[in-house]
Amino acid sequence: MFKFLLYLHIMHNLEYYTNHLHYPLELVNLVISKINNLAKPLGSLGKLEDIALHLALLFAKDEFTSFTSKSNLDFNLKTSQDIQKSYLDKLSKEFAHKLEKIIQSIELKPKVLLFCGDHGININQQISTVPSNLTTALMNNVLLGGAGVNAFCKIQNIPIEIIDAGVLDKNFVGEVTNYSLGNGTKDFSITDALSKQELQLAFKYGEDAVHKLQSMGFNTLILGEIGIGNTASASAMLSKLLNISAENSVGRGSGIDDKTLLLKTNLIAKALARTNNNLSPMEILKSYGGFEIAQITSAIIAASKANMCIIIDGFMVTVAALVAYYLDNNIIDNLFFSHQSNEKAHIELLKALKAETLLNLDLRLGEGTGAILAYPLIKSALSFLQNMSEFKNGTLVQRTN
Predict the structure, then answer these.
(1) Of the candidates 328, 321, 114, which has an alpha carbon nearest to the alpha carbon of residue 237?
(2) Do the domain assignments include residue 149?
(3) Is 23 part of a structural domain of the chain?
(4) Of 15, 49, 367, 390, which residue is the catalytic one?
(5) Measured CA distances, 254 to 214, 277, 353 (Å)
(6) What pTM was estimated for this model as a whole?
(7) Is 356 labeled as catalytic in the residue annotation?
(8) CA–CA gap between residue 285 and residue 274 (Å, rounded)
(9) How far apart (Å, rounded) are the C-alpha atoms in residues 54 and 42?
């Protein structure tokens, strides 16, 4: 029974990594073979093995593609499949030696980008437990080192960059990256949250943030956000993206009471009725998004093109990831989904992305905290892949450091 279940898991991985993700079958087989030959029972490290597989594929894909293209593959319709398979198998074996060097060279260099923005629907209607000017107070708490994100980054020595994507109050107590698009979006229960020009500039700023990260040598992007009322935007976007009613997409966000939940749900239902059901992803972002959501969407696409490891936080960041996926489905290759949040509709987003999270801790703080908590698991998966001894021809070969 165990061998059968392991077989099903391997078949699932092959399907997932070659069809939903875009990795070459030969490379997937090579990495699975390496993991299976490590000094452990097959599958005994569970989901850590899936993380290790994903990491190795992410950092080896470009070199594998280059390696095979330089080998002058010149197949035509008359070339038999057996000949093609035999040749690809030969190339894969040759690449196996190179794969080990690639794996050993992987070094994750993470940084948290914390995108912050305010939302007109909360400025005007207060559908959160607190007013919108608390967004800046929360940003200042990060700047002073007293937030949850600071606590988790401190023990892992992960730097944080705080980005003003468009908050109401600009009285900061420390250094903040200025990508501000204004003092909060417009109230999307009445009109579009962003203008076309604001959306275009948001995408430029998201790209700029990633390019700066890349120029500083970081290759792992941990995404977080701060924005009072941003779960309202995320819920409205989710409803339009997946054709789900407001009643099924709206959650309690910051912990609102039943009366405020009803107000929030009714306002979002009213907002959804403003537009038709055939909006493009960009139109949905323009109609219901936030400045920080738009910049995160852009950052995900840019980081994917830079082949970064991208760690997705909770509900709000996953909404941005779904928009990014609809705009460019190649981004899914780079995404690691950290946790399933306490926000009730988060599971619908994860299903749409065919994503499994690393953690399920009932988190709903934001600030990238779930993504930061998941990072040690990703780092541990890489460590076992790089450092465990392996079996070769039935003999356990000790790794030399």
Answers:
(1) 321
(2) yes
(3) yes
(4) 367
(5) 33, 28, 25
(6) 0.92
(7) no
(8) 14
(9) 17
Q: Around Cβ 75, how many Cβ atoms within 10 Å?
A: 12
Question: How many residues make up the chain in this entry?
Answer: 401
Q: CB-based contacts of 78: which residues, under 8 Å, 6+ apart?
A: none
The residue type of 43 is G
Look up the domain containing 190 and give its range: 110-379
- Token readout for 97 is 């030696």
Domain match, 58 and 177 both:
no
Summarised one tens digit per residue, pLDDT across range 296-330 is: 999 999 999 999 999 999 999 999 999 999 999 99
> Do residues 281 and 175 both lie within one domain?
yes
**Can you name the residues that pair with 381 across neighbouring β-strands?**
none
How many domains would you assign to the chain?
A: 2
Give residue-wise pLDDT tens across range 226-239.
Answer: 999 999 999 999 99
| Bridge partner residues of 335 (DSSP) | 310
Picking from 291, 49, 54, 333, the residue whose alpha carbon sits closest to that of residue 182 is 291
CA–CA distance, 78 with 100 (Å, rounded to integer): 35
pLDDT at 90: 67
